[in-house]
Amino acid sequence: MTATRPSEFSRPCAMPVNNLPLHDADHLTQGGNQALIVLNEQVYNLRITRAGKLILTK
Asked: In what order do the strands lie in the sheet with 42-48?
């Protein structure tokens, strides 16, 4: 992915980079700090830390 800084993304609907879907973490968490993501019937927890980092756990 070539865009590496948040300032390189326009909000709220940024264009995909290199034809990859682009999702805003704040939108996924609906303004909170956690969201659940399902893949192959497995549930993952996406969390935004106080430091602004993303953690994805099973």
From this structure: 34-39, 42-48, 54-57
Tell me the pLDDT of the chain (58 aa) as tens digits.
Answer: 344 445 544 455 556 678 888 999 999 999 999 999 999 999 999 999 999 999 999 9
Give the pair of three-digit tokens for residue 33. Answer: 């700090």
Comparing CA positions, the residue from 38, 36, 33, 37 lying closest to residue 49 is 33
Residue 35 tokens, joined: 């969201």
Joined together, the tokens standing for residue 47 give 């969390």
- Provide DSSP, 4-54: -SGGGS-SSSPPPBTTB----HHHHTTTSSEEEEEETTEEEEEEE-TTS-E
